[in-house]
Amino acid sequence: MSSNIIEIISEVLKCDVSLIGESDDLIELGLDSLKAIELVVGLEEAFDIMIDEEDLLIENLSTVTDIQEMVIRCMEES
After folding, report:
1. What is the rounded CA–CA span in Å between residue 38 and residue 13?
2. What was the pLDDT predicted at 57?
3. Which listed site, 35, 70, 73, 78, has its alpha carbon 20 to 30 Å from 62?
4. From its phi and psi, is residue 48 left (phi > 0), alpha (psi between -120 and 50) or beta?
């Protein structure tokens, strides 16, 4: 799952997947509020989930690990 998430992140941030580690700070890699929206849409489409509004805060999307935990939680709630 993390490799799929990393691929989505690399598309949104327009950077190579090799630059994204599971614990890297995505904000430092260029994630901003607009790109976070793109990321959420990509995650929802890729994993067929709906991400809750409270999870849309950029702080909740700061690492691949955080995003993976959120995706798993959303999948369990579906």
Report:
1. 10
2. 84
3. 78
4. left
What's the token pair of residue 45?
């489409």
pLDDT band at 13 (very low <50, low <70, confident <90, very high): very high
Measured CA to CA, the distance from residue 37 to residue 39 in angstroms comes to: 5
Q: How far is CA 11 from CA 6, 16, 52, 73, in A?
A: 9, 8, 22, 23
Q: Of 20, 26, 16, 61, whose CA–CA distance to 74 is shortest?
A: 61
The pTM score is 0.91
C-alpha distances (whole Å) from 63 to each of 16, 24, 26, 32, 67 are: 16, 6, 6, 13, 6
Residue 59, token pair as written in the block: 């702080």
